[in-house]
Amino acid sequence: MKGGSIFEDRKTAFALFLCFMLIIVYAEYLAQDQRIITPEAQQSQQLDSQAAPARADQAAAGSSTSQSTPTLSQTDSDLVDQSTPALEEYQEASSLQIRSALYNVQLSTLGGRFTNYELLNYKKELSVEEPLDLVSVRSGDPLPPRLISGTRNDDRIVYQVEGISEEFKRPDGSWFVPAGKTLRVQLVGTHSDGTEFRKKYIFEGSSFLFDIEASLSNAPNDGAPLTLEWPAYQAEENLQDKYDPVVYSLLKSNDKVEHVPIQEGESDLPTRQEGHWISLGDKYFMASLVNRAESESTGLSVRSEDSVYAIRLEGGVTEGAFKVYVGPKKYSVLEKIGYQLERNVNLGWFSFLALPLLMLVNLFYGWIGNYGLAIILLTLTIKLFFLPLTSKGFRSMKQLQDLQPEVKALRERVKDPTQLNQELMGLYKKRGVNPLGGCLPIVIQIPVFFGLYNALLYATELRHSPFALWVTDLSSPEKLYLAGIGVPVMLLLMGASMFLQQYFTPSAMEPAQRKIMLLFPVIFTVMFMIFPFPSGLVLYWLVNNLISIVQQVYLRTERKATPLMATLLASGLIFALGYVIVQFPLIHQ
User: Fold this and answer.
1) What is the largest CA-CA distance in the chain?
2) Over the range 86-98, which residues count as b (16 or more CB within 10 Å of their CB) and which as e?
3) Given the DSSP bridges, would you call strands 152-153 and 160-164 parallel, antiparallel or unpaired?
4) Averaged over 189-198, what is the pLDDT?
5) What is the band of 264 on the pLDDT scale with cuts at 50, 70, 90?
6) pLDDT band (50, 70, 90) for residue 159
7) Whole-prediction pTM value?
8) How does DSSP classify residue 307?
9) Using a CB cutoff of 8 Å and minimum separation of 24, what contacts does 338-344 make?
């Protein structure tokens, strides 16, 4: 490479752009195979590993805690009640139907378990009206929530309803909990060894968070903690899904959060740890077991057996007070609940940017009622914010392009690379040109892109949220079916806009180099077709490119309109176009 040439064209800028694109692909398709651990959690793991020999000595000495607490690889083969009821047995037993504006719960008296927990405002699939059920089991798997004490559990205990708030009972026999009200259900049952189990549910009408108060009577004094478990069956396709991995998260006693994707056949996940809560779920929904004593920590663990993964939270020896959250991973909802549950939403390294951007999207949605338009409005806001940097970078690239005749003459005259580099830097200084001026604005905007990428990728709000026409789910890749063939129209438009943006960008490249650079938008478009992004991200990128093209055209032709006026005009036209197409009926395919 000739000395100094790195400053004369957009190679540096493009190299940076290519780098962060490769990082995105790595994070999306490769990093999911590894544990997602915060730096603080990594340090905590190192401390845990240093303490492992001490724990091993305790186990060898017969520590009652280590004997009675389950690890992830442990199964229930050592429990007295080895015969788990079939799903049909739970369903055939007498049950209570509990409703609110948020959920529908079927509580079976066999085991005091949920045969279903439906989220009424979330559909199972976009094309059906069936609500999403967060109870995921096969026949023969234990239903949640499960109580365990040493070698006994309440799988086959037939509970009696000792008390329930009759004021909420409906004529159809169900119970409806109004917003702001509380429904208490007291269950009592006896284990085959004579141990009496008490299980009290406290449901809130306006929250996905409920309480479970449990206690034992006449139980053998074996020192085992009363443990609450939430089991969930994970199909093979769920465990292999790179876009929506199954993850368990825990808030440890040192206030650090750890997020661990569960992969098929994984057997080396952490054993019992001290902490405040533990959660299991996918990108959008979760079940979380929370220690009700917020200032204290307790034992957390995960059990796995035959595609069933169960999170566990320990209570006391004869009683336990737990909180359970079963619902969406919606940051604003979790933040209001407390217990730091919002930290289940993993927005990555740039969460400090992702959170404000997500709040802006929700703010704009509250104004206009369409998340597609909210993303457009957010994109326009970001472009206006970075307009001074964009204008400065564009002028720097234009100045470099104007200097090319002198640069070419200098290259022909000076053959020594070191001397050529010095001469070039002297020329740039003399003309007041910053050779990195076109790159710095791009570098500064990269963290914002990552923040927005994570905000849109993990926002539960975008799940099944329509934009317009054929884009009926902003959380999924878009396709318009023409003659039975799915065509990613918006993605192709994004690729075309990338090409035009590259074409209108000033460049100091030679014609042959420039032709090669114009091929990269085509390569990126093909790559995104192979590894598709959610349509919400594609929409952001398309709008961003369109605004950039308008800015470059006005700055390049030196029209009378200022860059701010040009950006405002283009933003208004793009938003108006989006608003118009939103008025057309959605195309359900």
Assistant:
1) 99
2) ebeebbebebbbb
3) unpaired
4) 91
5) low
6) very high
7) 0.79
8) T
9) 338/294, 339/276, 339/277, 339/290, 339/294, 340/251, 340/257, 340/276, 340/277, 341/277, 341/279, 341/288, 341/290, 343/249, 343/251, 343/257, 344/249, 344/257, 344/279, 344/281, 344/286, 344/288
CA–centroid distance for 219 within its chain: 42
Would you state the torsion angle of the CA atoms of residues 446, 448, 452, 453, taken in this order, to the nearest 10 degrees? 20
For residues 329 and 460, the answer to whether their CB atoms sit within 8 Å is: yes
> What is the DSSP pairing of strand 152-153 with strand 182-190?
unpaired
Q: What phi and psi, each to the nearest 5 degrees, are found at residue 467? A: -110, -75
| Contact present, 302 and 296 (Cβ < 8 Å) | no
Position 498: which residue type?
M
DSSP 166: G
Q: How far apart are CA 428 and CA 425, in angstroms?
A: 5
Structural contact between residues 203 and 183, judged by C-beta atoms closer than 8 angstroms: yes
In degrees to the nearest 10, what's the CA dihedral of 393, 397, 402, 405? 150
* pLDDT for residue 395: 67
Whole-number mean pLDDT of the chain? Answer: 78
Tokens representing 131 are 């609500």
CATH 2.70.98.90 domain locations along the chain: 36-346
Q: Which of these ranges, 113-122, 238-247, 263-272, has the smallest mean pLDDT?
A: 263-272
Q: Which amino acid is at 154?
A: D
Residue 19 has pLDDT above 60, yes or no: no
Choose which CATH entry (1.10.3720.10, 2.70.98.90, 3.40.50.300, 3.40.47.10) describes domain 36-346. 2.70.98.90
Q: Helix-strand-coil percent breakdown of the chain, rounded to 5?
A: 40, 25, 35
Computed over its alpha carbons, how large is the radius of gyration of the chain?
Answer: 29
Compute the distance between CA of residue 362 and CA of residue 531 in angstroms, rounded to an integer: 27
3-state secondary structure at position 101 = coil
